[in-house]
Design goal:
Blueprint lengths: L17 E5 L3 H14 L3 E5 L2 H10 L4 E5 L9 H8 L7 E6 L7 H4 L3 E4 L4 H9 L6 H9 L1
Parallel strand pairs: 1-2, 1-3, 3-4, 4-5
């Protein structure tokens, strides 16, 4: 007789292959890196500053960015998200990581998902497994471009 109490998870999208973590807390950055690698992300890079993150973006475009919005070198880490948004409809998925979600301007917060610190790393992995939602502007660019 089959076990009817066992539940199966619904199908989810694959994890991104390359994730950029922009986080100046070394312990948290390494914890996120380990969780993503354990979940199956092939390439994870950690940047502790805005400058390092911009250099990483120039070298290779990630599929997703986990972005701390209050970095040691700048208190407006969302400026990176604004730059990423200019990359067009195939820009990397953004997950904001912050202890102060209320500090993120509303129009910026709409560019991605906001995780309030502290959060469970499984939550981040689950978010990255969800299919990327495309906003109105991205859909229009795709149709017109």
């Amino acid at each position: 007789m089959a076990n009817t109490s066992a539940r199966t998870k619904p199908a989810t999208a694959a994890l991104p292959k390359r994730v950029l973590i922009v986080e100046d807390d070394a312990v948290l950055g390494l914890s996120l890196e380990q969780a993503l690698e354990d979940a199956g992300v092939r390439d994870v890079e950690i940047c502790a500053s805005t400058e390092a993150a911009l250099a990483a973006l120039r070298r290779e475009r990630p599929d997703a960015i986990v972005l701390d919005v209050h970095l040691a070198d700048r208190d407006d880490g969302w400026a990176i998200a604004e730059i990423v948004r200019t990359l067009g409809p195939d820009s990397p998925r953004i997950v904001f990581s912050t202890g102060m979600p209320q500090d993120i301007p509303e129009d910026i917060a709409e560019m991605g998902c906001v995780l309030a610190k502290p959060y469970d790393t499984d939550t981040l992995v689950d978010i990255l497994r969800e299919p990327k939602r495309r906003g109105l502007i991205s859909r229009l660019r795709g149709k017109l471009g």
